[in-house]
Amino acid sequence: MSPRLRDACFGLVVLLIVIGAALMHGDAGAATLGASAYPTVTMASSAGGADPRDIPGLIAAMFGPHAAMAQCIAGAESGWQRDAVNFNPDGSRDRGVFQINSRWHEAMPDAEAFDPVANVRYAYLVSQGGTDWGAWSEVTRARCGIT
Hints:
This protein has a single domain (3-143), classed as Lysozyme, CATH 1.10.530. The radius of gyration is 14 Å and the shape is globular. By secondary structure, the protein is mainly alpha-helical. The protein has helices spanning 3-25, 55-63, 67-78, 110-113, 116-126, 138-143, and strands at 85-87, 93-95, 100-101. Strands 1-2-3 form a 3-stranded antiparallel β-sheet.
């Protein structure tokens, strides 16, 4: 099996897991998600699987047809950096690839916020599969052409 086909299959598996988790929880909105909403998925960097250091590739695998917008949002938010942190005046922190806010998304602990797989998966759920970017700043949305 070619590496490209293997990565595509992995992306499909991840997408199915995310959809299943969203369906099990009924409402994929951020307010209803708990730590149990994240199925355990690992990505082997040396075993031929997708590399979690390839953040744009991870986003593409997760978001499918909405990957370009998701990549733009993550790029504008963190420059695709897994360890990006922004400290806000209210004392909260925006964490990881999609800058998940610690106040509005307190169900996501730091260990998951800085894990690129968990962060991208959470952004997928919050954004309704890449169709609703309302949880991200107006500035970020404008940079990505969302009006």
